[in-house]
Automatic annotation (TrEMBL):
<dbReference type="InterPro" id="IPR045078">
    <property type="entry name" value="TST/MPST-like"/>
</dbReference>
<dbReference type="Pfam" id="PF00581">
    <property type="entry name" value="Rhodanese"/>
</dbReference>
<keyword id="KW-0677">Repeat</keyword>
<protein>
    <submittedName>
        <fullName>Sulfurtransferase</fullName>
        <ecNumber>2.8.1.-</ecNumber>
    </submittedName>
</protein>
<dbReference type="GO" id="GO:0016740">
    <property type="term" value="F:transferase activity"/>
</dbReference>
<dbReference type="InterPro" id="IPR001763">
    <property type="entry name" value="Rhodanese-like_dom"/>
</dbReference>
<dbReference type="InterPro" id="IPR036873">
    <property type="entry name" value="Rhodanese-like_dom_sf"/>
</dbReference>
<keyword id="KW-0808">Transferase</keyword>
<feature type="domain" description="Rhodanese">
    <location>
        <begin position="163"/>
        <end position="275"/>
    </location>
</feature>
<feature type="domain" description="Rhodanese">
    <location>
        <begin position="16"/>
        <end position="132"/>
    </location>
</feature>
Length: 276
């Protein structure tokens, strides 16, 4: 099984692997205000992973929700992804949307998937081969999703956990949003956080578009005193939660899940508690 994180040097040396598929999960916009000037190029032979459209539940009013098993399977097959594909996910911000895609494949039962540390910016910085972004079609793949429900939590489960205090909820939003003193980027959301949750802004596990060294990540998570508790990661819409989830898996063995609705759901519910 491949490590959750691979370097650009590793990818360069494996470009000719017959089962390799590079997925570019770059997004045209995001709620964190991050932007890229690399919008017209991609890693050579990369395939565009349309997180907002093809790989989100369009029947749900919440953004970025994990699609149904059948829908995920069909969209992967359209990208030519096979059951034995080795998938490397990148994005044009270094590390931003790519961990979400890595987690999605894990949640859908595919183990041979990793995030490219540093993503497209690091790849270009090292002078490795790129090409203009282009639309392509692929031979239908053999990928078949096998959904793992234990990796996804809903609002009812989070509400129950507030009383039972079994899992530890970790929020990837900024400290200001967590404490309710910064406005939410989405309209009509209350400020604050899920009672009992801890705050670990996703920016604290990254530097210059790459994950911090493992020794630094280990210290961050040790300071949270997680012990062997199950961890549930949340954020604004379930995207940056996956950044700190991946960071935890680089140095921890705790079981993990994502609250997929995240604050976009919790912050608009009227019958749930909110802490500030």
């Amino acid at each position: 099984m491949i490590s959750p994180l691979v370097s650009t040097d590793w990818l360069k040396s494996h470009l000719n692997d017959p089962n390799l598929i590079i997925l570019d999960a770059s997004m045209s916009e995001n709620k964190s205000g991050k932007s890229s000037n690399l919008g017209d190029v991609q890693i050579i032979n990369a395939r565009f992973f349309d997180l907002k459209n093809s790989f989100s539940d369009k029947g749900n009013s919440l953004p970025n929700m994990l699609p149904e098993e059948a829908s995920f399977t069909a969209a992967c097959q359209d990208l030519g992804i096979n059951a034995d594909s080795l998938i490397i996910v990148c994005d044009n911000l270094g590390v931003y949307s790519s961990p979400r895609v890595w987690w999605m494949f894990k949640a859908m039962g595919h183990e041979s998937v990793a995030v490219l540390d540093g993503g497209l910016p690091k790849w270009i910085e090292q002078g490795f081969p790129t090409e203009p972004i282009q639309k392509s079609t692929y031979s239908k793949g053999t990928f078949s999703a096998k959904f793992r429900p234990s990796m996804v939590k809903n609002a009812a489960q989070i509400l129950k956990n507030i009383d039972q205090n079994v899992a530890l909820v970790i929020d990837a939003r900024s400290a200001g949003r967590f404490c309710g003193i910064e406005p939410e980027p989405r309209k009509d959301l209350k400020g604050g956080h899920i009672p009992g949750s801890l705050n670990l802004p996703f920016t604290e596990v990254l530097k210059d578009g790459q994950f911090l060294p493992k020794e630094d990540l280990k210290l961050i998570f040790e300071n949270l005193q997680l012990k062997d508790r199950s961890l549930v990661f949340t954020c604004g819409s379930g995207l940056t939660a996956c950044i700190i989830l991946l960071a935890s898996q680089l140095v921890q063995k705790n079981t993990t899940a994502v609250y997929d609705g995240s604050w976009t759901e919790w912050g608009q519910l009227n019958d749930v508690p909110i802490a500030t």
